[in-house]
Amino acid sequence: MKPLYIALDMETQKEAMDFLDQFEEKRPAVKVGMELFYGNGPAVIQTLKERGHAVFLDLKCHDIPKTVERTMRTLARLEVDLVTLHASGGKTMMAAAKEGLLKGTPSGKEPPKCVAVTALTSTSQRQWKEEQLMEGDLGDGVFHFTDLALQAGLDGVVCSVQEVEGLRKRFGEAVYTVTPGIRMAGSATHDQKRAATPAQARAAGSNAIVVGRGITASNYPVGNYGKIYKEWMGESPWIDK
């Protein structure tokens, strides 16, 4: 399974559910970020799970190890499919996150996958060096953070499509790659500096992609979802297996 997560970057649970109602009985995978979660709390996750959606909870945790461990223990009880934290928090923090997920997961359930955000897809090489004061090439930084994440026991990383092929060569299938910044060819990239098409993500070997405004801001969200999914997976999302 290679999910296409729709980023529900909305303020209210009602807005999110009204949007998803357009898909009728279909249940696309979704990403819940800080805006929707902080405004509505765990109730929005419960509603999405009851409706049958796979949920990627993208809160990008970054704090001292103990705080992150306790936070992940709490998030694990929500039984989401995927969670994030910032790799720049370091290996000890990432290991603590993994420990929290294992402790918090209900008995008999699989813990959520945990992936580390390496460099946001809105980050350029110039920002990497001049604003964040990071040495060397941005891509090298992504590889370094990925190595730390895997050493800490995480499942993989969030990165741009541009880094996936290099990660595959270096780490093989050991790293699960989630790639946001996905746009159809010719579409606006908005604030994304390292964007890519679904076809490019597929060719590079991404495990999951995230699409927001290309679907949610569209006049035909269900149709656009189908086009993106078909380019990503090579088949219609509505084919009965």
TrEMBL record:
Give me the Gene Ontology terms describing cellular component. cytosol
Q: Which residues form the active site?
A: 58 (for ompdecase activity), 60 (proton donor), 60 (for ompdecase activity), 63 (for ompdecase activity)
Identify the InterPro entries for this entry: Aldolase_TIM (IPR013785), OMPdecase (IPR014732), OMPdecase_AS (IPR018089), OMPdecase_bac (IPR047596), OMPdeCOase_dom (IPR001754), RibuloseP-bd_barrel (IPR011060)
- GO molecular-function term, one example from the UniProt record: orotidine-5'-phosphate decarboxylase activity
Task: Identify the Pfam families for this entry.
Answer: OMPdecase
**Top enzyme class of this protein?**
lyase
Lyase among keywords? yes
Sorted alphabetically, the keyword list is:
Decarboxylase, Lyase, Pyrimidine biosynthesis
Give the enzyme's EC designation: 4.1.1.23
The UniProt annotation places substrate binding at: 9, 31, 58-67, 121, 183, 192, 212-213
Any idea where the Orotidine 5'-phosphate decarboxylase domain is?
3-228
Residue spans making up a coiled coil are none
Q: Does the keyword Lyase apply?
A: yes
Question: Which catalysed reactions does the entry list for this protein?
Answer: orotidine 5'-phosphate + H(+) = UMP + CO2
**Associated pathway:** Pyrimidine metabolism; UMP biosynthesis via de novo pathway; UMP from orotate: step 2/2
List, in alphabetical order, the GO biological process terms annotated in this UniProt record: 'de novo' pyrimidine nucleobase biosynthetic process; 'de novo' UMP biosynthetic process
State how it assembles: Homodimer.
Similarity comment: family membership: Belongs to the OMP decarboxylase family. Type 1 subfamily.
Q: What does this protein do?
A: Catalyzes the decarboxylation of orotidine 5'-monophosphate (OMP) to uridine 5'-monophosphate (UMP).
> What's this protein's name?
Orotidine 5'-phosphate decarboxylase
- Native organism is Salicibibacter kimchii
